[in-house]
Every structure is written in C-alpha cells, then in structure tokens.
Model the fold of this input.
Amino acid sequence: MAVPFDQRSDLIWLDGKLIPTAECKISVLTHGLHYASCVFEGERAYGGEVFEGTAHSERLKRSAGLLDFEIPYSVAEIDAAKRLVLEKNSQKDAYVRPVAWRGSEALGVSAQNNKIHLAIATWEWPSYFDPAQRLKGIRLDLAEYRRPDPRTAPCLAKAAGLYMICTISKHRAEQRGYADAMMLDWQGRVAECTGANIFFVKDGKIHTPIADCFLAGITRATVIGLAQRNKIEVIERRIMPEELGDFSECFITGTAAEVTAVSEIANWTFTPARITAELMRDYTHTVQPKGKAAAA
Done:
C-alpha cells in the first residue's frame, strides 16, 4: 500500500524553512482552502535538474498576480528552493510541486491582508500513464464539463480552483474505463485534456487548439519547438469535434504526461505513427541528462 502523501519521510520547503513532511501543517481555516486563492506548478526533475524550472517559477508568479496576490519570493529564490528540496530529499528524477496560497488571518471573500505562503514539495513519480500504453495510445472520454469563457475566470492562471472540473471529468472517465477525458471550450470547440494539451496530425502537419481559455503548457511549447525544428508544420487554430475523424494521429503533452499517444477519443480512433513516435523520442532526449538519453 502506498504511503499517504502527508506521511512521507522526506522534507517540504515551507516559507523558507525545510520541514519534515509529516510535520508540515496548515490551518483548516486557510483562505486558499475555502475560497480557492491558491496557485501551483507541476514540474519534473531529470537527473537532479528541473526541466524549464525558471519558466515554471515565472508562471507561478504570473498566476498569483492573476489571483490578485504576490508571492514574496523572487523567481531566482523559488528556483533555488526547488534545487534545495531535491538535494535534501536525495531525488534525481522527481516531480516538483510549488504551491502558493492565502493564509488564515481573515476568512471571507475579501482577504487582502492575509499572509501569502509558499511551499515546495518533491516526490518520485513515474510516468502519469502506463509506459506500455504511451506509444500504443491511451483512450480518452469526452468530458461533460467545458473550459470556461475567459471572461468568467482567470483561465490563464494555473489556479487550484480551475481544476475542480478536471478532477470530476477524470474520475468519470476512469470509472468508464478511459485513462482521461478531452474537454471542449465554452463554445464547443476542442480545448485540452484534464491536465494536458492535445495535438492532432493530418497529412504530415500538426494541428492544436489555440490556448486562450486554458494554459499554453510549457511542455506544449517545447514540443511545438521540436516539431518545427524537424520541419513539421504546426498549425494553432480552432478545432471542432466533428473534425476529429479527419486526423490520423493524436497525442497529448504535459509535465506529467510528457508526450503520450492517444488511440481513441470517445467514438474517434487514431493510429499512433511516425510523428508521435518522433516527438516522444525527441522530447525524452531533450529532458533527460545526455548520458541517460543516449542510452534510451
């Protein structure tokens, strides 16, 4: 049986101090719990180095700003804290989770003077999906909930509250035998999965939704760059669900998912092939330490 996250024997960096995970506590009356004033990042370390760590720290700061609070640490200080936690936990290949939230000084919708906290946890975490399925292709359900209109929520923040519908959608998909779910946007266009961006292939070109009501992921940007380096055209555009039958390949990208092939979305099927395999390989070589990547 897996050890519960709050009982792990490692350390968490909290407000500038390293604290044993089992002793790292916050109040049940914290504002971030009641009113979702909380932002976070999901990052991976390969060989002890956080991939695109500074870009993640910068996005964490931007997300906080969109929720109207400022994290009291610089990007450089956040980067240094992540390296420290990895070192003290003796972890080389790990998931890295910075999270910032409003504290418990006041509990109501307005909490402008509440203290802003920052914590950084790390843990060993293998592939988000079964490695044997990553090239064979995972199956996606079609989510009932949609990504919200950007006029109704701070959609470009990696904010905890925006993931409520993702958890519901992923649970429902898993209960139906799928690995995840694809979400549409508020206008019924293809958006993303519950925690990953999505790409399609047609006639040797890659198509992906415009990221204006969901996060344009850091892994997404990396993969677009790899495709362009390989002279594969990437088209960012509006994609309607009825177009899915026209695509030959499909894959998703994210810090947790890395690059994972998709074989099915509801009633549409895809055959993972050259472009998906090429980008999976190139992404692995990009993020892994040189020696390890060469052996992969």
Observations:
- The CA atoms of residues 225 and 283 lie 10 Å apart.
